[in-house]
Write a structure and sequence with these properties.
Length: 248
């Protein structure tokens, strides 16, 4: 049985382990993180995270993103994050049960990287839609928020694109909602760092600028890839995320 399909633990046991971590003598930040990871195990599917199906065919986003890139990105790269997240959670579950504080702390990097990779990509796929399937709204909460923060759609695209292209190495460009100010903001994160957990911004739109997201189609010309992504953004999904965040 592969690591991706292996049942790591009963979800009720993971939740019990999470409770144990919260009541342990671990530093508060580490205890909270471990508890959150253990509690995040899905209640269905034997308590393991699974690679989500795409809401469209691999070829649906061409020519902005080719079928070859989509298949590699989804079935290989995202699947690797899911597999490694499940492995890390299995180790964390065992370490909590054994009271092995050193191992619990040592797993934090793998959980953040692979958990972030799974979270970011799960959001990214629903960020996208075939060209022409979703247009930027001319009115409503998203149009209002963009006008208030950027002055208009073109200015938003310019700022998000510039900051996303400028990410050093691998990472993500984001449009996020700041609950404290009620405004949308632009942010970038390195590697697979999840936006909300590391900045407090609620993710609305993410652009993956790891080279595996575009090298087949654009080689190392990141600006051309980012420009192409704007043609396949699912604005309905982005606006729904904004409305949900504003309602909280």
């Amino acid at each position: 049985m592969s690591a991706a399909s292996k049942v790591i633990a009963n979800p009720s046991l993971l939740r019990a382990a999470a409770t144990h971590v919260r009541s342990s003598s671990l530093p508060p930040s580490i205890a909270a993180s471990a508890a959150a990871h253990l509690s995040s195990a899905p209640s269905a599917g034997g308590g393991v995270h699974a690679l989500p199906d795409l809401p469209y065919d691999y070829a649906a986003l061409a020519p902005s993103v080719s079928a070859e890139t989509m298949e590699l990105h989804h079935s290989k790269h995202h699947n690797a994050y899911v597999t490694n997240l499940n492995v890390a959670l299995e180790k964390l579950d065992a370490a909590v049960g054994a009271g092995d504080v050193g191992t619990i702390v040592g797993l934090e990097g793998a959980l953040k990287f692979n958990g972030g990779g799974h979270l970011n990509h799960s959001l990214f796929w629903t960020n996208l839609a075939p060209k022409g399937a979703s247009e930027f709204p001319t009115s409503g909460p998203l149009a209002d928020a963009v006008k208030a923060r950027f002055g208009g759609y073109d200015a938003m695209v310019a700022e998000v694109s510039a900051k996303t292209v400028a990410v050093q190495g691998s990472g993500w460009g984001w449009l996020g909602y700041d609950a404290a100010t009620g405004r949308i903001e632009v942010a970038t994160r390195p590697n697979q760092d999840p936006l909300e957990a590391t900045t407090g911004l609620v993710p609305l739109l993410g652009i993956d600028v790891w080279e595996h997201a575009y090298y087949v189609d654009y080689r190392n010309v990141r600006p051309a890839y980012v420009k192409g992504v704007w043609d396949v953004v699912n604005w309905k999904e982005v606006e729904e995320r904004l409305a949900t965040a504003q309602a909280k």
